[in-house]
Amino acid sequence: MDKQKLVHRRQLLALLGIPLASVASSTPGSLACRIFSQEAENKNFDTLDFEGCEHWYKSLKWNMVRFEGSLLQKFESLKEIGFDGVELDSPGDIPAHDALHASRQSGLPIEGIVNSTHWNIRHSDPDSSVRQVARRNMITAMRFARDVGANSVLLVPGKVTDTENENHDQVWRRSVDDIHTLLPLAEELEIQILIENVGNGFCESPEMFASYIDAIDSPWVGIHFDIGNHIRFGPPADWIRKLNRRIKKLDVKDRTRDNLRTLIGDGHADWSAVRAALREIKYQGWAAAEVPGGDQTRLQEVLRRMNAVLGKSDGNPLFLDL
Predict the structure, then answer these.
(1) 3-310 belongs to CATH 3.30.420.40
(2) Which of 16, 83, 189, 190 suits a disulfide with 146, CB 3.0-4.6 Å?
(3) pTM for this prediction
(4) From CA 22, how far away is CA 43, in angstroms rounded?
């Protein structure tokens, strides 16, 4: 590949939030979350214009899948419904080999992993032995992500309990210290650690959240921004603009201003403003539903609502073979 074209591919992958090496070193033929639209694949990289180019792919959390069938059958159903990818949990009970097989056979990428223990086994716990377990669980999740072709692990870094042993400053310091110990492995595996803000009493302004990510100061750490979680603190579009390119992936839900959950599109999220803000920061990547799940009919409705508020995906995510 000539040097100029490689530079343009690096620029494209940077826009998509994907390290170049993670694409180049991926298992040949894997359907990892190497996001790349057919439209872009067919264009000349030297002239590719990103203005107005939206690559927003729809995913969902694995715990939303509530119907019978084998792992492969479930993946095939999600693909048939129209989802572009799925997020699994780790530590969990699905073997990596089985998950990767289902992904390859169905054509449905496993785009991310959710740390399944981060709420109760926290990186901010006053007990150092608990934090040690939290680190081990995160390492398990990162290795699982690598093995199934994902490129990120979602992490809630801690919880402010308003006690003298787990206040905001302590959650900040302990979680930053813990995450720093994970950075060499993140770089080795080429897995992004993506921080999510939930009802954990932490970083409840965009300025503070941005400062937290900047304090970690690593290209392997970013934000998994949950649109619905921030409505009670202010318009999500304002958060998006201020967090800017720190945002690497999205969670999609809707809520009222007093934090009551609603169906996507029925709450107080200003979706036209959200779309405009995402375009302004040139966001490209995944948007995962995080709402009550159900059977195929229910998930079809979830995807219909996601498409209504964000627009339809512009092409299938493809494996990019460099």
Answers:
(1) no
(2) 189
(3) 0.83
(4) 22
Q: At what angle do helices 71-81 and 296-310 cross, to 10 degrees?
A: 40
Q: Rounded distance, CA 81 to CA 9, Å? A: 31
The fraction of the chain above a pLDDT of 70, given in percent, is: 80
Cα torsion 234, 84, 302, 295: sign: negative
Angle subtended at Cα 155 by Cα 151 and Cα 159, rounded to the nearest 5 degrees: 175
Q: How many CA atoms lie within 13 A of 286 on its CB side?
A: 33
Is the four-CA dihedral 36, 237, 86, 83 of positive or negative sign?
Answer: negative
DSSP structure string for 30-93: ---S----HHHHTS-TTT---TT---EEEEEBGGGB-S-S-HHHHHHHHHHHT-S-EEEEESSS
- DSSP codes, 221-260: EEEEEETGGGGGGS-HHHHHHHHGGGEEEEEE-EE-TT--
pLDDT in tens, 103-117: 999 999 999 999 999
Domains of the chain by residue range: 3-310
Are 157 and 171 a contacting pair, CB within 8 Å? yes
Tokens of 146: 């690598």
Q: What are phi and psi of 270, to 5 degrees?
A: -90, 95
